[in-house]
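Why run this: before we spend reagent on co-expression, it is cheaper to look at a predicted model of the complex and decide which construct boundaries make sense. The entries below are exactly what would go into the expression plan.
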Amino acid sequence: MKHLLTTIVAVSVLLPALASANPATLNHPGRLLASNCFQCHGTDGYGMEHLAGERASEISGELMEMQFEPARQDIMAVHAQAYTAEEINLIADYFSKQPK
Ligand code: HEC
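The model came back. Tokens follow.
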């Protein structure tokens, strides 16, 4: 009985989470890095300054621009300055693969 209850609780908690994740990008190597952006830009980029479905070159271009603006010390620029070019490309590719 205890196992049955545990299973029911586990399934009811996990299923909605799985259903809302985009299965096509679940194993994308940029997903974990991109999750650092979710708190402000929304899960998978569906929020403020909508990133989901944007062209990867546009997202990475903007982040790299921010890296070379040392005078900019706002939250977004400081965030961008913490990533390598390779990491930025992975993050940008991840968001570009989300349906618009
Ligand atoms: C603490 C909140 C916060 C986090 C975390 C954050 N951002 Fe932002 N981001 C903002 C805000 C606020 C703006 C709009 C103001 C600006 O451009 O600085 C913005 C703007 C942007 C823009 C420019 C959008 C446009 O059309 O001008 C891009 C691209 C972007 N963020 C990507 C990212 C990515 C990728 C990450 C994760 C690596 C990230 N952001 C993490 C707050 C955040």
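The radius of gyration is 17 Å. The pocket of heme C is lined by residues 36-37, 39-41, 49, 51, 59, 62-63, 74-76, 79, 91 (CB under 6 Å). Bring this page to Monday's planning discussion.
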